[in-house]
Amino acid sequence: MTVFHRNEKRGELPASLKGGVIAIGNFDGVHRGHQGVLSRALEIAADRNIPSLVLTFEPHPRTVFRPDEPVFRLTPAPLKAKLLELLGFNAVLEYPFDRSFSSRSPEEFIQSILIDWIGASDIVTGFDFHFGKNREGGPAFLLASGGKHGFGVTLIDAFRDEGAHVISSSLIRDLIADGDVVQAAGLLGYRYTIEAEVIHGKKLGRTLGFPTANMALPPEVRLKPGIYAVRFRRADGTIHDGVANFGHRPTVTEDGAALLETMLFDFAGDLYGQTCSVSFFGFLRPELKFDGLGPLVEQMNHDVEEARALLSGVKPFGPLDAEIAF
What we know:
By secondary structure, this protein is α/β, with parallel strands linked by helices. It folds into 2 domains: 2-156, 3-Layer(aba) Sandwich (Rossmann fold), CATH 3.40.50.620; 179-325, Riboflavin kinase-like (Elongation Factor Tu (Ef-tu), domain 3). The chain has 11 helices and 12 strands. The protein has helices at residues 32-48, 61-65, 77-87, 99-102, 106-117, 139-149, 169-177, 181-188, 204-207, 293-312, 319-325; strands at 2-5, 21-24, 52-58, 91-96, 122-126, 152-156, 193-197, 213-215, 226-233, 239-247, 259-264, 275-286. The strands form 2 sheets. The protein has a 6-stranded parallel sheet, with helices on both faces. A 6-stranded antiparallel sheet has the order 7-12-9-10-11-8. 36% of the residues are buried.
């Protein structure tokens, strides 16, 4: 799949991608609510045998307008593109978002991007999609523009879960911040997953008999500190069950930077420098300060047993989950 950045020197889309169906949105998390929009775009593209594309914006608009409060991204751009590829899209168009872009009129957005750049034949988006200066462009404007310029418009209503609650990225972020990765997975349609490079640590875990793969997560990540049952995917695609600690390691350090430390079961090898992923299956307990290394090691043994038991019977939620965590 092509990930196309509009600010590249080669700004024009290849002819093979023009005239397609465009799903528009930020799609942070690519959750079940987003999948309603995305699946409809894929259906139209398949029925008409034309390209299927996603138009999204980088960085997240909220980060542009509130740089001192960067948004906790459920799926940073590379992971989001990977999920969209797994769903079956031909390309992701990442358009640079800045204050200048946000000041464009709705008509300019449609003419310069949807018509001149993409040559869209159909647009699929959420019922509440707004665009252009001061969000002046809305569903009615988009529908009228489709009639004027000759492209189809499909608006998808908000998707609700089994409890009739609207699924949103904000709700999922709050669940992850509470450590409720199980309910978050139910709304995402797959286990919450992070990708990062494995870095060197102090190697204390190795001396205790629990060697770990360490990852530094972006500071805006709101994952609850604690111990999790996880699956770890190595750069070559191999998957290992494991147990992970996210936090500051209060038993062994006074002021440690937050790290995700994953102990892989049944693995011994060098992972340094590899970009790997960790999928979260269950929260086991909060991060605690123990009275010495002996009690810490005893508890870690219990954590390993509990994680193995939890992971022994898990099944995928659906196709995305099967691709990512199984």
